[in-house]
Design goal:
The complex is a heterodimer of chains A (about 325) and B (about 290).
Chain A: H1 2-26, H2 32-57, H3 65-82, H4 87-109, H5 114-133, E1 144-145, H6 152-171, H7 173-183, H8 185-190, H9 195-218, E2 223-224, H10 231-244, H11 249-265, H12 270-287, H13 313-321
Antiparallel strand pairs in A: 1-2
Helix pairs in contact in A: 1-6, 2-6, 2-9, 2-10, 2-11, 3-4, 3-5, 3-9, 4-9, 6-7, 6-9, 7-9, 10-11
Chain B: H1 2-31, H2 38-55, H3 60-83, H4 91-113, E1 118-119, E2 128-131, E3 134-137, H5 138-160, H6 162-172, H7 174-179, H8 184-210, E4 212-213, H9 219-232, H10 237-256, H11 263-277
Antiparallel strand pairs in B: 1-4, 2-3
Classes of the chains: A mainly alpha (about 325), B mainly alpha (about 290).
C-alpha cells in the first residue's frame, strides 16, 4: 500500500516537473542553451541509473558502460539517418541492440570477478569502439552526422520509464536476488539463487537503458564519433554512481544532476574539469568509500514512506568490508 | 626474410610492454591492486627522459638513469599518498582510486604543460645492420639488450637479495610476513620503486623508438601491459616478460598483415580469451577459491 502511494507521488511529481519545464521551453523563457543542458542532465541520469543497476545493485564492477552507449547511439542514428524512420522507433531499436550486446558481453564476462571483470568490460567497450571505428558505413573515425531530434519530451519520457523500471526491478524478487549477489555471492549461490542468471539479467537491463540513452545522446549532438565513447566516457558515468553512493538510486541521480551542472560550467576548461573529477573520486574513495549516500535513498530521510531501497544501511557497512 | 624483420620489431615493442608489465605484475602480486596509474608513471618517465636529453643535453644512459630514479620516487609517492590508506579497503574502492590517480596525473600534466606532442631528440645513432639479409636497427638491438639486462637485474634482486626475499614473503602472505618481522610498508614501497623505475626506463625506450610523446601516451601501453601481465600469469615475473614479448609480436603481425586499425583490438581480444579460458595465465597455477 505504501509503495503504491509512493509511486503515485512520484508520478505526480514527475508530471509536475515535466509540465513546468515544458511550459518554460515553449514560452521561450528557457533558451536553447538551458534546454540542452536539461536534456543532457536527463541523458546522464539515465546512464547513471542504468549503471547503478549493474554496480550498485548487483555489485558487478563494469567500467565499459560507454560501449553500450555507443551501440545505442550508432544503431539509432542509422535508423533515423539512413533508414529515415522516426526517433521513437530508433530509441527502442538502439536499446534492444545494446541489450543484445550486453547479453553477448555479459554471458562470458560475468563469470569473472572484481578486477578481472572490470578489465574485461573495459576491453569489450574498447573492442566495440574499434569496431565502429572500422565500419565505413557509419563514417569511421570521422563520425556520423545526426540531425538534432532529441526534445525534452523524449528525454523525460525515457527518464521516467528508466527510473520506474529500475525501481520496480530493485524492489521485485529479481532485485532482491541481485542485492543478495552483491552482499555475498557464495551465500546467494548456496541459497539457491542462480547467480549467473541474475547477473546477466541486470547487466542486460543496464545495457538496454544505456542504449536508449545512446539514442538520445546521438540525436542531441549533431555528430557522433567513436572517440566520444572511449574510456573517459565510461569513467564519467562511473563517477556518477560512485560519488552518489554504490547502491543508492537517488544518490546516483543527485550526483548525475550535480556533476552535469558542474561540468557545464567547466566546459571551457576540460583539464580543470578532469582534475577536479579525479581528485573528488580519489578523496571520496579514501575518506568515504561507500559514496556520499551509501546505500540509503533520499526517501529514507523523510521516514514516512520508504521508496526503493537497495538493501538496508547495515548492508552498506558489510558491502564496504567484504569482497 | 620480411617475417623475421617483423618478428624483431615485435620483440622490441614487446620488450617495452614487458618492462611495464613487470611493474603491474609485481604490484599486483604484493597488494592485489591493478595499479592503473602505472601507465602514467611510464609517461612521466618518457617526459623526464625528454627534458633531460633535450633540455639539459644529457646522453642516453644518464637520461635513462635519471628517468628511472625520478619514476621510482614518483611511484613510492603514489603508493604513500593514495594506496596505503586503502590496503584493507575493498578491491573496488582500490580500483576506483587507482583510476582516479591515473586521470589526475594525466590531466595535471596537461594542465601544467599543455597537450602538445613532443618529438624526441635523436639521441642514439640509428645504424642499420645487415644480418643474413635481415635489416636490424641498432636502436632496437640496444633497447632489447638494455631491457634484458634490466630484467636480469630484477631477477637477481628478487631472488638473491634480502629485500627480494621480503617481497616474495609479503606477496605470499602479508600477515605472516609481518609476524616474521618483515617491515611490510618498506617492502611495498620498494616494490613500487622497482616497478616504477622499470616503467620509467620503458618510457625512455618508447620515446627513442617511436619519437613522439604526449601526456596521454600512457593509457594504451598501460592497458596493454596489463594484458601482457595477465597473459603471462599475473603476479609471476617471468610471465610478465614472456607475455609482453608475445603481445608485441602478435601486434606487429596484426599490423603486418594489413589490419593496423585493428591492432588495439587484438590486445583486448587476447585479454578476453585468456580471461575466459585460462584466467591464471600461461605460467599461472590454478588456485581453488576458498570461502
Amino acid at each position: 500500500m505504501k509503495k503504491v502511494r509512493g509511486f503515485w507521488f512520484f508520478l505526480i511529481l514527475s508530471v509536475f516537473v515535466y509540465g513546468i519545464v515544458q511550459f518554460l521551453i515553449s514560452a521561450g523563457m528557457l533558451d536553447i542553451y538551458y534546454s540542452n543542458t536539461l536534456i543532457f542532465i536527463g541523458i546522464n541520469i539515465i546512464l547513471a541509473v542504468s549503471l547503478h543497476l549493474v554496480i550498485g545493485i548487483t555489485g558487478q564492477f563494469s567500467i565499459g558502460h560507454a560501449g553500450f552507449l555507443a551501440v545505442g547511439a550508432y544503431i539509432s542514428a542509422i535508423i533515423t539517418m539512413k533508414l529515415q524512420l522516426p526517433l521513437s522507433l530508433a530509441l527502442v531499436a538502439g536499446g534492444i541492440v545494446a541489450a543484445l550486446a550486453g547479453l553477448i558481453v555479459g554471458i562470458p564476462t560475468l563469470r569473472l570477478k572484481g578486477d578481472y571483470l572490470a578489465i574485461a568490460t573495459l576491453g569489450f567497450a574498447e573492442i566495440i569502439r574499434i569496431i565502429f571505428l572500422n565500419i565505413d558505413y557509419v563514417g569511421g573515425a570521422a563520425g556520423m552526422q545526426v540531425t538534432h531530434l532529441t526534445t525534452w519530451t523524449y528525454t523525460f519520457v525515457c527518464l521516467f520509464i528508466t527510473i520506474t523500471v529500475i525501481t520496480n526491478f530493485t524492489n521485485s524478487r529479481h532485485g532482491r536476488a541481485c542485492v543478495s549477489i552483491r552482499e555475498n555471492e557464495i551465500a546467494a549461490d548456496a541459497m539457491g539463487i542462480n547467480t549467473t542468471y541474475y547477473k546477466v539479467i541486470a547487466f542486460t537491463l543496464g545495457s538496454f537503458f544505456a542504449g536508449i540513452a545512446g539514442g538520445l545522446y546521438a540525436h542531441n549532438f549533431y555528430i557522433i564519433q567513436p572517440s566520444n565513447f572511449g574510456f573517459l566516457k565510461s569513467f564519467d558515468i562511473l563517477i556518477f554512481v560512485v560519488l552518489g553512493g554504490l547502491g543508492s538510486l537517488s544518490g546516483s541521480v543527485i550526483s548525475a544532476i550535480f556533476l552535469t551542472i558542474v561540468s557545464t560550467f567547466l566546459q571551457n576548461y576540460p583539464e580543470t574539469r578532469m582534475i577536479i573529477y579525479s581528485l573528488v573520486l580519489v578523496i571520496v574513495m579514501l575518506y568515504r568509500p561507500q559514496g556520499l549516500m551509501g546505500t540509503r535513498e533520499i526517501t529514507d530521510f523523510f521516514g514516512k514512506w520508504k521508496g526503493s531501497k537497495g538493501g538496508n544501511s547495515d548492508a552498506a557497512k558489510s558491502f564496504t568490508e567484504s569482497s | 626474410m620480411e617475417w623475421i624483420q617483423q618478428l624483431i620489431n615485435g620483440i622490441s615493442l614487446g620488450s617495452i610492454y614487458a618492462l611495464i608489465a613487470l611493474g603491474y605484475t609485481m604490484v599486483y602480486g604484493i597488494i592485489k591492486l591493478i595499479n592503473f596509474a602505472h601507465g602514467e608513471v611510464f609517461m612521466i618517465g618518457a617526459f623526464v627522459g625528454f627534458y633531460a636529453i633535450a633540455g639539459w643535453g644529457l646522453g642516453f644512459f644518464p637520461a635513462l638513469i635519471l628517468s628511472m630514479a625520478t619514476c621510482a620516487i614518483f611511484g613510492v609517492l603514489i603508493e604513500r599518498i593514495a594506496y596505503r590508506r586503502l590496503r584493507n579497503a575493498t578491491r573496488i574502492a582500490a580500483l576506483i582510486t587507482a583510476i582516479g590517480v591515473s586521470l589526475l596525473i594525466q590531466y595535471t600534466v596537461i594542465y601544467a604543460r599543455g597537450a602538445q606532442v613532443e618529438v624526441y631528440p635523436n639521441v642514439l645513432a640509428n645504424k642499420k645492420f645487415d644480418i643474413f639479409g635481415v635489416q636490424v636497427s641498432s636502436q632496437s638491438l640496444l633497447i632489447l639488450t638494455v631491457s634484458i639486462i634490466l630484467m636480469i637485474i630484477l631477477q637477481f634482486i628478487v631472488h638473491k637479495t634480502k629485500i627480494g626475499k621480503a617481497m616474495r614473503a609479503v606477496s605470499h602472505d602479508m600477515e605472516a610476513a609481518r609476524l616474521m618481522g618483515i617491515n611490510v610498508n618498506t617492502t611495498i614501497s620498494a616494490t613500487f620503486a622497482i616497478g616504477s623505475s622499470l616503467a620509467g626506463a620503458a618510457g625512455v625506450f618508447f620515446g627513442v623508438y617511436y619519437t613522439k610523446i604526449e601526456p596521454l601516451m600512457g593509457v594504451i601501453p598501460g592497458v596493454k601491459a596489463f594484458v601482457a601481465a595477465v597473459l603471462g600469469g599475473i603476479g609471476i615475473i617471468p610471465g610478465a616478460m614472456v607475455g609482453g614479448m608475445l603481445l608485441g609480436i602478435v601486434e606487429t603481425i596484426v599490423s603486418a598483415i594489413g589490419l593496423s586499425l585493428w591492432r588495439d583490438a587484438a590486445a583486448f581480444i587476447i585479454l578476453i580469451l585468456i580471461l575466459l579460458f585460462r584466467p591464471s595465465g600461461i605460467f599461472g597455477k590454478n588456485t581453488r577459491e576458498k570461502v
